[in-house]
Write a structure and sequence with these properties.
50% strand, 5-stranded mixed β-sheet, globular, single chain, mainly beta
C-alpha cells in the first residue's frame, strides 16, 4: 500500500511540474535604427499555433513548457530570425530589414534608383537567383531568367559564344550583342583575340547583380550603343562589419547529353547492302560518338573576403576554374582575381571607389567540325585502334580522327585587366561631382597548329598559324548629380561627359614545314620551310559623348524621367559625326493614391509609359573612307615599259576597294513601352506586364552599286525607308508562400511574344545564312525578306522523290521550270515566343529548385543532315541515319539541295537547372566557433530536353554568316551540348 501511495505522489509531482509553465519575454528592435518593431510574430519553433505578437513598443511574452528551446521571430519586411532561450531570461532580439522589391536598388546608367522610382523597363537579377552549376560566363547566369531576353549558346563548347537577343533582332549588320557595362565601365565588343566568349574573363562568382535595361527610356543614357539593350553587371562590394570569408568548391562531370541516332554496326551492314552500296566491313562494332567524346571534369575553387568600417570597405577574391569539354583538347582554364575598395574622407563628402579584375584565360579548342563530322559518318565496322595505336587503315582512306586529336591544337592565352577608379566629392548636400577613369587592357596569343605526321602524305609537313592581338580600351567620364526636394517635389539632375578610345592591333603569321622531332611547331620556328602568308591590322576608334537626365517625382506618386545623349563617333563621316538620342518616360505609383493606401490586397501597383531612341555603332571601322589596293591585272595596269611582254612586267596600279561615303548615318531604334508592375496579398504574388514596339531604321549595309559602272564592287550606305520592326508582350509572375514556416515554396515564370518583320527593303532577299560544303557553298538558306521575319528560310519546298529517283520540288510559279523564284518562305529561325518557369521548395535546412526554359514557333535547318545523311553516303560505306533509307526508290546519285526536306521544328522545353542543397549547422560537427555556415549542394544542368529536332540540340546556331550579316538557326557540325552533374561545398567563416 505504501508503494502505491509513493507512486501516486510521484505521478502528481510530475503532473504539477509539467503544468507549471514558464514564460520568456523580451523586446524586438530593428537592426539599424534600434527602434521597437510592433506586430512581430513570436512562436516556439515547430509550434506556430502558439504564436504571440509584439505590442506597440516591441515587447512580447510567450509561455514555454521547456527550460530551453528556440523561438522564431517573423514579420513582413524583416528577415525571419531564430533565437535560442534558456530559463526565464529576458531577450533583446535585433531583426534585419529585408529589402523589399519596392525599396531594392536598381542600377541604371550612371547611377541607381529605388525600384519604386523606376519608370523604364528594367529587369534585375540578384546572385541568389542566378543559374547554378558549371557556369563560365554571364549569359549562362541569365538564361531563362528574364522575360524578353533570349540567350542561345552557339555550341556546347566550354565558354562558347552566345546570341543574346533583347526584345527581338533589330539590326542585320550589327548583330544582336547588347552593351555590357561592368561596375560603370562600358566594354567594347570588338575583337580581343579570344575565339570563345569574350565575357569569360569575368568570374561569375564575383557578380552580385545583373540589371537588364530593355526599353529606350532605360537604355538611352548609353545612346549610340544601346539599340540591342544594355546589361549592367555589378560585382560584389564590401560592407561595414566584421570580416567575412567565403570558400566555395565545385566538382562537375559532363557527358554527351544526346546522341544522334546513326546506324549501329549491324544495322549499317544491312543497310549498305540494301541500297546496293559497297560495304567495307572492318569486322568491328564501334560507336564513334563514344570513342570521340569523354567525361569532362570541371573543378572550381573560389576564396573571397570582405568587410569594413564606417569609412572604408573592401572585397577581394581569388578564383581558379578548370572546365573540361566532352572532346579531348577542349578546355577552359581561368585564373581570376578581384579587388573592390571604397574609402570615405572629409566628413564623408569625399569618396573613392576602386574596382579591378585581373584574369588569365587559357582556352584549348579541338577541330570541332572535323570531329563532329567524323563521329557521325565514320564506318562503325572500322576498329578505332590496332594493337593499342590508332588504326591507320580505315575504309574510304579516311584519316583517323583519333590521330587528328593528337596532332591538331588550337590554344589561346589571354591576359586581361579591367580596372576603374571613381573619386567623387559632395560640394553641398545632394550635389556630387564624380570622375571615372577606367582601362580595359587585353593581350592574346593564339596558336593553331598541326604537328607533322609522317604516315600521311598531306599531314607530314606541319603547319602553324600564330595570331597576336592587343585591345586597349580607355574611358574618361565626368558627371555631376544633384538630388534635392522642394516640399512634395523631388528632383535628381544628372549631367555628364564621356570620352572612350579603343585601339585594336593584330598580327597574323602562317608557316608550313616543320621538323618531325616531337617538338610542337610553335616551339621550333627556326625549322620552318616557308612562310605561307602574313598580315597585320590596326584600328583606332573614339567616342565623345555628352548626356543628361532629369528624374522628377511628386509625392512618390507621379514620376518623370527625361534623357538626352549626344554621341560623336570616329566611325562615321564628317557630315554625320554626331547622333542624338532622346527619351522620356512617365510613371504612376497608383498604390500611393488615397483609394489604395489602406488596401490589404494591393501592395504595389505602378503604371509606366516611355518613348525613346537608341543607336547602333557596332559597324566596321573606316567604312566612311576610301580604300585602295595595288594590282597589275586586267585593266588595272598599263604597259609603260615598251620592253614588257606580259603582265608580270607591267607596273602596279592603284585600285579602289571601297568608296568614300562621309554621309553614312547611325542606325536608329525608336521604341515605345507601356508597362504595369504589381504585387498583391502581402507581396506574395508579384509580376510585370509590358507591351513594346521597336522600329529600327536607317539600316546600314554593304551593298552592290545600282550603277554597274563603278570603281568599286561594293559600298556602305544607309538603306532609305527600310525598317526592322519588333513588337510584343512580356509577362513575368512570381508567387511565394509564408517563408516563416518550416516548409515554404515559390513558383513563377516569364513568357515573351515577339513579332519580327522587315519592311520596305529594296532587295528581294538579304542572305543571313548560306550553305557550306562541296557543291553547296553559297546557296541561300535564310535571310531577310519584305514582310517576313529576319532569318526566314527562303528555300524550295520538297515534295518527294520522283520516278527517276531524284528529289522533286514544288513549282510555285508555276511555269514548268524550277528557278530561284520557286522558293517559298518556310518559317523563321527566330522564335515566336520564349518562356521559362521555376519551382523552389524549402524544408527546414533543405532546399530544392528547378528551372525550365523553352522556345516555340521557330525552325532549324539541319545542315548536317543535308551534307551527310543521304543515300549516296551510305552507298559509299559511310554512316548515316534512317533519313538515307526514308525513300526506297531514291537514287544514290540524288543531289542534296537546300530545301524543306532538312527543315525541322526547333521548339523545345528544357530542364535547364536543378539544385538540391542542405545548410549544415557548424554546431552539429563542432565547428561553430570557426564557421558561420556550411552548405552542401548537388546540381544538374541540361537534365533533359523535349523536342522534335533530330540533331544534337535545338538550342544551337553554327553562325554561318554571309557578308558578315549574322545568321540564325543553322546547325552545321556544331559542338554538342553536355549534361553536367556537379557537387558543391560552400563554407562561410
Amino acid at each position: 500500500m505504501k508503494k502505491i501511495y509513493a507512486l501516486l505522489i510521484l505521478a502528481l509531482g510530475c503532473m504539477s511540474h509539467s503544468y507549471s509553465q514558464e514564460s520568456v519575454s523580451g523586446i524586438v528592435v530593428s537592426d539599424l535604427e534600434k527602434n521597437p518593431v510592433p506586430g512581430v510574430s513570436v512562436y516556439i519553433k515547430g509550434e506556430p499555433k502558439g504564436a504571440v505578437t509584439t505590442d506597440f513598443d516591441g515587447n512580447f511574452k510567450i509561455k514555454v513548457q521547456q527550460n530551453e528551446g528556440i523561438l522564431v521571430f517573423s514579420y513582413v519586411g524583416f528577415k525571419t530570425k531564430e533565437v535560442a532561450y534558456s530559463g526565464t531570461q529576458k531577450l533583446t532580439v535585433s531583426m534585419t530589414e529585408e529589402v523589399s522589391t519596392l525599396n531594392e536598388v536598381v542600377v541604371v546608367g550612371y547611377g541607381s534608383q529605388k525600384r519604386s522610382d523606376v519608370t523604364g523597363a528594367i529587369s534585375s537579377l540578384k546572385s541568389e537567383n542566378f543559374n547554378k552549376g558549371v557556369i563560365a560566363n554571364t549569359g549562362q547566369l541569365l538564361q531563362g531568367k528574364v522575360a524578353g531576353v533570349n540567350v542561345t549558346s552557339a555550341s556546347g563548347e566550354p565558354g562558347a559564344n552566345q546570341d543574346i537577343i533583347i526584345r527581338g533582332v533589330g539590326s542585320l549588320r550589327s548583330g544582336t550583342t547588347p552593351l555590357y557595362v561592368v561596375d560603370g565601365f562600358a566594354l567594347d565588343n570588338t575583337n580581343n583575340g579570344v575565339a570563345s566568349n569574350p565575357l569569360n574573363f569575368i568570374n561569375p562568382q564575383d557578380i552580385e547583380s545583373i540589371d537588364i535595361l530593355k526599353d529606350a527610356s532605360a537604355a538611352a543614357i548609353y545612346g549610340s550603343r544601346a539599340a540591342n539593350g544594355v546589361i549592367v553587371i555589378t560585382t560584389k562590394k564590401g560592407a561595414k562589419g566584421n570580416a567575412k570569408i567565403n570558400l566555395s568548391m565545385t566538382t562537375g562531370f559532363s557527358t554527351l547529353a544526346n546522341k544522334v541516332d546513326v546506324f549501329s554496326a549491324d544495322e549499317f551492314r544491312k543497310q549498305v547492302v540494301a541500297v546496293n552500296g559497297t560495304l567495307y566491313d572492318g569486322g568491328a562494332n564501334t560507336d564513334w560518338q563514344d570513342e570521340l567524346t569523354r567525361t569532362g571534369v570541371t573543378q572550381n575553387l573560389n576564396l573571397s573576403m570582405s568587410g569594413g568600417t564606417d569609412k572604408s570597405t573592401y572585397s577581394a577574391s581569388l578564383g581558379v576554374d578548370n572546365q573540361e569539354g566532352i572532346f579531348k583538347n577542349s578546355d577552359l582554364k581561368r585564373y581570376s582575381g578581384r579587388l573592390n575598395l571604397n574609402q570615405k574622407a572629409l566628413n564623408d563628402k569625399f569618396n573613392v571607389a576602386f574596382n579591378m579584375t585581373a584574369t588569365k584565360l587559357e582556352n584549348s579548342r579541338p577541330d570541332i567540325s572535323n570531329i563532329v563530322g567524323s563521329m557521325l559518318t565514320m564506318n562503325p565496322t572500322d576498329a578505332p585502334y590496332v594493337n593499342g595505336e590508332p588504326n591507320i587503315n580505315l575504309s574510304n582512306n579516311v584519316f583517323n580522327p583519333l590521330i587528328n586529336q593528337r596532332i591538331y591544337s588550337d590554344e589561346t592565352n589571354n591576359n586581361r585587366i579591367l580596372a576603374n577608379i571613381a573619386p567623387s566629392y559632395e560640394f553641398i548636400k545632394g550635389l556630387t561631382y564624380k570622375f571615372n577613369l577606367g582601362v580595359d587592357y587585353s593581350v592574346s596569343e593564339r596558336d593553331i597548329q598541326q604537328i607533322p605526321y609522317a604516315l600521311y602524305a598531306d599531314k607530314n609537313k606541319g603547319t602553324l598559324n600564330n595570331i597576336m592581338t592587343t585591345n586597349n580600351n580607355v574611358l574618361y567620364e565626368n558627371t555631376l548629380t544633384y538630388n534635392f526636394s522642394v516640399k512634395s517635389h523631388s528632383f535628381t539632375v544628372l549631367a555628364g561627359q564621356s570620352y572612350q578610345k579603343i585601339q585594336v592591333n593584330q598580327k597574323n603569321y602562317n608557316f608550313e614545314g616543320f621538323a618531325d622531332n616531337g617538338i610542337e611547331p610553335k616551339n621550333q620556328l627556326e625549322t620552318i620551310v616557308k612562310s605561307t602568308g602574313h598580315s597585320s591590322s590596326a584600328v583606332e576608334n573614339e567616342l565623345q559623348s555628352f548626356f543628361g537626365r532629369l528624374n522628377y517625382g511628386y509625392e512618390n506618386k507621379y514620376l518623370l524621367t527625361a534623357t538626352m545623349r549626344a554621341d560623336g563617333s570616329s566611325k562615321f563621316g564628317k557630315n554625320n559625326r554626331y547622333g542624338y538620342f532622346p527619351s522620356v518616360a512617365l510613371g504612376w505609383n497608383i498604390t500611393n493614391e488615397d483609394f489604395l493606401k489602406e488596401s490589404e490586397v494591393v501592395n504595389n501597383l505602378k503604371l509606366r509609359a516611355s518613348w525613346g531612341q537608341t543607336g547602333v555603332q557596332e559597324i566596321p571601322s573606316k567604312i566612311t573612307k576610301a580604300s585602295y589596293t595595288e594590282s597589275n591585272l586586267g585593266n588595272n595596269t598599263y604597259p609603260l615599259d615598251p620592253s614588257a611582254t606580259n603582265l608580270a612586267g607591267y607596273p602596279y596600279g592603284s585600285v579602289f576597294t571601297r568608296l568614300a561615303n562621309p554621309n553614312i548615318q547611325w542606325e536608329v531604334s525608336t521604341q515605345t513601352n507601356i508597362g504595369l508592375d504589381f504585387s498583391l496579398f502581402n507581396n506574395r504574388l508579384s509580376g510585370t506586364v509590358d507591351y513594346f514596339n521597336k522600329v529600327s531604321d536607317n539600316i546600314l549595309l554593304e551593298v552592290k552599286p545600282v550603277d554597274p559602272i563603278q570603281p568599286a564592287p561594293k559600298y556602305w550606305t544607309n538603306i532609305p525607308n527600310m525598317e526592322i520592326k519588333n513588337n510584343g508582350i512580356e509577362l513575368a509572375l512570381d508567387y511565394s508562400s509564408d517563408k516563416s514556416k518550416d516548409f515554404s515554396y515559390s513558383i513563377g515564370g516569364n513568357i515573351a511574344f515577339t513579332d519580327n518583320k522587315v519592311e520596305n527593303s529594296p532587295y528581294k532577299i538579304l542572305t543571313t545564312g548560306g550553305a557550306q560544303g562541296s557543291g553547296q557553298s553559297g546557296a541561300t538558306i535564310n535571310g531577310a525578306l519584305n514582310g517576313y521575319s529576319i532569318g526566314s528560310f527562303y528555300i524550295q519546298k520538297f515534295t518527294g522523290i520522283g520516278a527517276d529517283g531524284r528529289s522533286q520540288y514544288q513549282d510555285t510559279n508555276p511555269d514548268g521550270q524550277m528557278k530561284d523564284d520557286d522558293r517559298i518562305v518556310a518559317g523563321s529561325a527566330i522564335p515566336d515566343y520564349i518562356y521559362a518557369f521555376y519551382l523552389n521548395f524549402k524544408y527546414k535546412n533543405f532546399d530544392l529548385g528547378f528551372n525550365f526554359n523553352g522556345a516555340g514557333g521557330n525552325k532549324i535547318y539541319n545542315h548536317v543532315a543535308m551534307t551527310s545523311f543521304n543515300r549516296g553516303q551510305l552507298a559509299k560505306s559511310l554512316n548515316t541515319t534512317d533519313r538515307a533509307t526514308e525513300f526506297s526508290n531514291e537514287a544514290t546519285i540524288n543531289s542534296n539541295t537546300v530545301s524543306t526536306r532538312y527543315l525541322e521544328d526547333g521548339s523545345f522545353l528544357r530542364l535547364n537547372n536543378a539544385t538540391l542543397g542542405y545548410n549544415l549547422s557548424p554546431k552539429m560537427i563542432g565547428l561553430d566557433n570557426v564557421m558561420d555556415n556550411i552548405r552542401l549542394s548537388v546540381t544538374g544542368q541540361n537534365l533533359f530536353v523535349i523536342t522534335k529536332y533530330t540533331g544534337y540540340d535545338p538550342e544551337i546556331n553554327t553562325g554561318t554568316s554571309v557578308n558578315e550579316i549574322q545568321s540564325f538557326g543553322i546547325d552545321y557540325f556544331s559542338y554538342p551540348r553536355s549534361r553536367t552533374i556537379s557537387f558543391g561545398l560552400n563554407a562561410a567563416f
